[in-house]
């Protein structure tokens, strides 16, 4: 008889999301795996206590609940193993610590998530690790930046806030030729729209806080590695003692069941708004990879299966001295869009992007950059809310 797990390999995305990480008959037939809370795990005898030759040994090393989520993520990513950590930023930092040592050199994309840059500049530097930033559009030209001690190349595609698309296969090929590990923050696309390991990346990093959880009430990160790099990742996470709670893992599993449907709604609404904004008189530019006008659109179309619900646009302003005032007026007039960080939840959010940390890439100069997280509300209501913002900005 064919097993359900075998059928899932060929099933559609939503079917897979409904069933991955679920083994009801291992839990008395209940559809959702129960929450296993605990620190202490007992051993049957002194011999097993010494050898630790059993599946579970301590709460930080995994429970049936956290393992169910890891199993689901491995299936989505095509990875050999996944570790869960308390936040998306922790996922980035743990990955870096797994593959970098004192005296090593790392290449990090200049459009990287801001807190990841802070960790590189302050913590890795203190540990004697050198970091250089590179242009996200460099492609195979990254070879010129390699040094004999380059051990890691970090990608984020699309880039944070400005959404540059990287040539992931080309960069990965160069990095592997030089013996470097390739890590990638894939939070924007999720493995539904882009699978990094299929494009040459060794380690896929995901802020599970965003689309997998989907309800703005959980913090979690996931790091998924290929076979060659899994053991080093598993080892450093064990040494650091980091783990995600079983309760949060249970809720992320529940969020996964609807992620495909939610992500499709985010995608459609965001693209509708992006296309509308592109023709608006108060918009200088729209930064959305799925728009044909976007500089990295061809690469996006080649590699990605879809786009998500977050993008930015450049709001026109009457002079640089009016950038902050214009952005503030726009944001303060919004009523449905909340003003806040994070994204991937059901509610729409907006903020002004600060790009002062960029050292290589040229940032938009026509006006302030506004980032929109497009939630699950009706797109007509979101459009009307943005118009309220435009009216207020025009008066500045």
Automatic annotation (TrEMBL):
Which GO molecular-function terms appear in the entry?
cysteine-S-conjugate beta-lyase activity; pyridoxal phosphate binding
Question: What is the name listed in the Swiss-Prot or TrEMBL entry for this protein?
Answer: Cystathionine beta-lyase
Q: Which SUPFAM superfamilies did the record assign?
A: PLP-dependent transferases (SSF53383)
Give its E.C. classification number. Answer: 4.4.1.13
Known Pfam families for this protein?
Cys_Met_Meta_PP
Keyword DNA-binding attributed: no
Q: Which CDD domains does this one have?
A: CGS_like
Looking at its record, which EC class is this enzyme? lyase
| Names of the cofactor(s) | pyridoxal 5'-phosphate
Give me the reactions it catalyses. L,L-cystathionine + H2O = L-homocysteine + pyruvate + NH4(+)
Q: Family assignment? A: Belongs to the trans-sulfuration enzymes family.
Q: Which organism is it from?
A: Ectorhizobium quercum
Q: Which domain of life is it from?
A: Bacteria
**Keywords of this entry:** Lyase, Pyridoxal phosphate
Report any one BP term from Gene Ontology: transsulfuration
Query: Where in this protein does the record say N6-(pyridoxal phosphate)lysine is found?
Result: 210
